[in-house]
Design goal:
Strand content: 15-25%
Largest sheet: 3 strands, antiparallel
Bound molecules: zinc ion
Strand order of the largest sheet: 1-2-3
Structural class: alpha+beta
Number of strands: 3
Helix content: 55-70%
Radius of gyration: 32 Å
Number of helices: 3
Shape: elongated
Length: 148
């Protein structure tokens, strides 16, 4: 049957996606140290009168940790001697978040393929009602045949 071929193709696609997901999950098992923020470099304006920054030459750029807290963004200045370590931690956090997003997409795809398998095996109540109606029509005829 046509459906069997379709279902077997769907199964094959799910198998491949599960392999992708396993690799992805393995890459999340042992993360390095992270910090829940991204590293950004911002120019500064000190506000002092007659400073060069007032004339369009800002200070910096300086490194900051940018984090989302309760819908707001908070900036934390990063000291130079911690910059290397903080940079690695922020990069690892970004990598982890990116992989998590990929994991969600893979799960959505797998789910949608399972839904297609479901639909290929699924009939509507409407079809069931039709079968009932046809049976009812057939019953009197069969009784007539017996009577004859
Ligand atoms: Zn200034």
């Amino acid at each position: 049957m046509m459906d069997r071929k379709a279902i077997s193709d769907l199964r094959q696609r799910i198998f491949w996606l599960r392999e992708d997901r396993e690799k992805l999950e393995n890459s999340l098992f042992r993360p390095k140290k992270m910090i829940r923020a991204s590293l950004v470099f911002l120019a500064n304006y000190c506000g002092k009168k007659d400073c060069r920054c007032k004339k369009g030459f800002p200070h910096g750029p300086y490194p900051y940790l940018s984090e989302k807290r309760k819908g707001k963004t908070r900036m934390t200045y990063v000291k130079k001697r911690t910059l290397g370590e903080v940079k690695l931690e922020a990069e690892e956090y970004a990598r982890f978040q990116h992989q998590l997003a990929r994991l969600s997409k893979l799960n959505e795809k797998i789910r949608s393929l399972f839904e297609q398998i479901r639909d290929l095996n699924c009939r509507e109540v409407e079809e069931y009602r039709k079968v009932l109606t046809e049976r009812k029509k057939n019953i009197p005829r069969q009784e007539n045949e017996k009577a004859n």
